[in-house]
Amino acid sequence: MNFRLLPLVAGLALPFTACAQATRTKPVPAARPIRADTTALRRTLDSIANAHRGVVGYSVIDIDNSVRLSRRGDETFPTASLIKVPILVTVYDLVA
């Protein structure tokens, strides 16, 4: 590529980008977060944990308002590395 033409190409492109900026519409306001029913969520999570015969702990944090639901959230649990694979596969399926 001839690098001497680069300033010329950039100079020709600048007016077009300025015109594109001038025709923009008003920005759409961000959607307000919906306040979750944390009581129902806690009941659901606790019923799942109570039905399990093992030791269950969870911690869920709403990053919009820092509300935290936790059951044994301050305890350290040994990790089972193989469970991470199906969880990640499910998360990737949900995101895709």
Structural overview:
The protein is mainly alpha-helical. It has a domain at 38-95. It is built from 3 helices and 2 strands, in the order ααββα. It has a two-stranded antiparallel sheet. A hairpin with a 6-residue loop joins strand 1 and strand 2 (68-71). The protein is extended and about 55 Å long. The mean pLDDT is 77.
Strand order across the largest sheet? 1-2
- Broad shape: extended
Biggest sheet, open or closed, and with what strands and sense?
2 strands, antiparallel
- C-alpha-based Rg, rounded: 26 Å
Element order: H for helix, E for strand = HHEEH
> What's the N-to-C terminus distance?
38 Å
The secondary structure category is mainly alpha
Strand residues, percent: 5-15%
Average residue pLDDT: 77
The percent range for helix content is: 40-55%
Unreliable stretches (pLDDT < 50, length at least 5) are: none
Annotation, overall tally of beta strands: 2
Number of distinct helices: 3
